[in-house]
Amino acid sequence: MPIGRRTDRRIAVLMGGRSPEREISLKTGQAVHQALLRRGYDAVALDVGDRLYQDLKEQDVAIAFLSLHGPGGEDGLVQGFLETLGIPYTGSGVRASAVGMHKVMAKTLLAAHGIPVPPGTVIRRGGRSPLAKVLRESKLQLPIVVKPVSQGSTIGVTIVRRTAQWKEALAVAHRYDHEAMVERYIPGHEATVSIIGTAVGGAKVLPAIEIVAQKGFYDFSAKYQTGKTQYLCPAPLPAKVLRKIGDLAYRSYDVLGCEGAARVDFRITPRGQPYVLEINTVPGMTATSLLPMAAAQVGIEYDDLVEQILQSALDRAAQRAKPEFV
């Protein structure tokens, strides 16, 4: 995918923030910052806090490269803030970011477009929610997955296999969000498909990766501790399944109106039926992250990938420069 534009203006890599994914965000941001410097861009690294407005102004920032994960960085909040300042940024816009981060909203929209998602329900913090009633009303049965509605990196997620686990699983999910999503557990394979999109080259679907966690659950430690998970890329799944998840990933990206890089996570039944779990609109870019791994399979080195993601901000800047009325 060719790079359509370059810029001599200052780029701020926004990272850190206050979400539970702060440490991962810092690693992503530091890696991205170094890649931009290697490519000759005028780039600074900013740890996002209360002084973000002052930092952006003092550094004379013209473009933001978003390396923020989780609430405050992936949910449209910082995107909206940058919109008000007129600073172009990488990745998806306010609407796609907000919908993508809110798993229930994303699933509802995807299901309305015929994209398969696991059935489930939502439990708000503070309400009475006996397991038997939840299962009956949602037409689910154990095992089920309980997770915060708006978190990433499998934070606060529990697979409930026994009734005795229910209250604790709900409490853990509600620790991170006032809404907890309860959905059917999909047995089988776990896979992810990444997409890079630019106005110049369109959207490119990268090879799927199959994720094989040692303990069978791809939780936070399995994601970020070396050696706890096998990543098989390209995924050794039947060609028919690979075509299907590639198509579903592209459709999910399109339906939500995503831009730049995104990653769509799947569970695939033993019979080959895929279900979309979620879409990540600011995928990780650490040494063990899945987007760079998939890109490398098609010859896109890390620094090239960073530059291609930057393209989404340059495209947004070019769009702003066009006259509103012709």
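Above is the first protein from milestone M3; the second protein from the same milestone is given next.
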Amino acid sequence: MVKKSVLKIVTAAALAVGTTLSAFAADPIKIGSVLSVTGPAAFLGDPELKTLQLYIEKINKEGGVLGRQLQLVHYDDGSDAGKANGFAKRLLDDDKVDIIVGGSTTGSTMSMVPLVEKAEVPFISLAGAVVIVEPVKKWVFKTPHTDRMASEKVFDDMKKRGLTKIALFAETSGFGMSGKKETEALAGKMGITLVATETYGPKDTDMTPQLTKIKNTAGVQAIFVFGFGQGPAVVNKSYKQLGLTLPLYHAHGVASEEFIKLSGPAAEGVRLPAAALLVADKLAANDPQKPVTTAYRKAYNDRYKEDVSTFGGHAYDGLMIAVDAFKRAGSTDKAKVRDAIEATKGYIGTGGKVNMSATDHMGLDQTSFLVLEIKNGDWVLVK
């Protein structure tokens, strides 16, 4: 009898060990990502990659998802949409990823969209243009506010200040051109007149010719810049050099501490729409975003000794929405995960409260978008 009891105990222990080993040996859940870690859009891609690496490591230490580890498979497109397309093919065909989080830019994202739609793999973009989710594409979602929302927020603030005649200065990137299109379409509807429109290239190092034209245009009351990366900082410096005093606005493509550093004193007085992450410490104690934004900010600062940006926040939200979808789907079945992402309700992230639906693959509204001003080298919430 003793021998039989011992045998049962040994057998039970062996089964338990085997089950544990099987859990550890299970194939990882593959998170694919194509990000602009280098090139003109590194401003976006660098904090996005760091955020994904930080939180995937954290999630794995806590036991993973569905009893499986997460594996990040990422490529750097160098801010080149053509390369993004090639890397997306690799993620889908060779790496067999379960989901894609990223691209960084609108151009890279849109070059990937036809591939993910054909492959039927969920894709959460970190880019800003409204074209990514309008019209709705079955397998495509995004985390940042759209360019149209940025224009609406800026125009609302301008009108409160009695500014209705503006100059639009747009970058010739995918984000800038989409922003230009949305701004032009929205202006008349909101009682705004565009009295001048200029463009600049992402790699331009001097914006004085275009700004001089704006300066010499009669009736201009404010300037609205639509771009991302280093270009908008160059705009600020050229604006300062020309002695311009018109109110200066930017879109949300520059919402990071790095923008202030690149601009130096020329950033003073600039206004832009942004998510709450940049003013996490200034949020009310009962604001539902405060615990999320302050925790992310601390974790990122502790790990990288760098200031946060809303772009890293977009990656955080994209990853957490994906993880939550895997859990609710109870598997990595791509159709079930896609449906779970679309059914996301009440997610509180760095970008705001997300409520997605079959007709809204972003899920944010204007209440999660704030107007900030740069004063004394810091972000101040405009009431």
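Note on the second protein: The first strand starts at residue 29 and ends at 35.
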